[in-house]
Every structure is written in structure tokens, then in C-alpha cells.
Amino acid sequence: MQKRSLTPEGVSEIYQIPKGTLANLRSQKKGPRYYKVGRRVIYFIDDVERWLKAVPVLTQDSMEESR
């Protein structure tokens, strides 16, 4: 069974986003949607992937592909 949620450590390990960056994004109310369960922070994989897909860096090659 696939795990549907991750801790900040899990997000960092899988997606190579430093834990400190995730903490900074949370404090700025930016980044992927997260949930607080007591003192724990959890992210749902779908939310992280949706956020990643919503903030692409457009390169010349990717812009030429869309033509």
C-alpha cells in the first residue's frame, strides 16, 4: 500500500526540497498545502505534486514545444 502522506523529512528525501525551505515556505504561508496534527506537520503527496506542477520554470525549449 502506497503512503499518501509525508512528514517534512519525507518530502525532503523524495523531492529534494530542504526541510528548512519547507519551514520557510510554511512561515510565509506559501508552498505546498500542509496540515498540522498536534505539533506534527504532514503533507499529502498529491498536494506536493500539484504545487510542484503549478510552479514550472519555463525555458526556451519548453516554450518552443508548446507552439
Which tags fit this structure?
alpha+beta, Molybdopterin biosynthesis moea protein, domain 2, 3-stranded antiparallel sheet, 49% helix, 67 residues, elongated
Give an overview of the whole structure.
By secondary structure, this protein is of the alpha+beta class. It has one domain (5-65): Molybdopterin biosynthesis moea protein, domain 2. Helices cover 49% and strands 15% of the residues. It contains 4 helices and 3 strands; from the N terminus they run E-H-H-E-E-H-H. The chain has helices at residues 8-15, 19-27, 45-54, 60-65, and strands spanning 5-6, 35-37, 40-44. The protein has a 3-stranded antiparallel beta sheet with strand order 1-3-2. A hairpin with a 2-residue loop joins strand 2 (35-37) and strand 3 (40-44). The radius of gyration is 14 Å and the shape is elongated. The N and C termini lie far apart (40 Å).
TL;DR of this structure?
The chain has 67 residues and is an alpha+beta fold. The protein contains four helices and three strands. It has a single domain, classed as Alpha-Beta Complex (Molybdopterin biosynthesis moea protein, domain 2), CATH 3.90.105.
What structural class results from the helix and strand content? alpha+beta
The strand count comes to: 3
- Amount of helix: 40-55%
Q: What is the spatial order of strands in the main beta sheet?
A: 1-3-2
Order of helices and strands: EHHEEHH
Distance between the termini: 40 Å
Count of DSSP-assigned helices: 4
The low-confidence parts are: none
CATH level 1 name: Alpha Beta
Number of discrete domains: 1
Instruction: Write the CATH architecture name.
Output: Alpha-Beta Complex
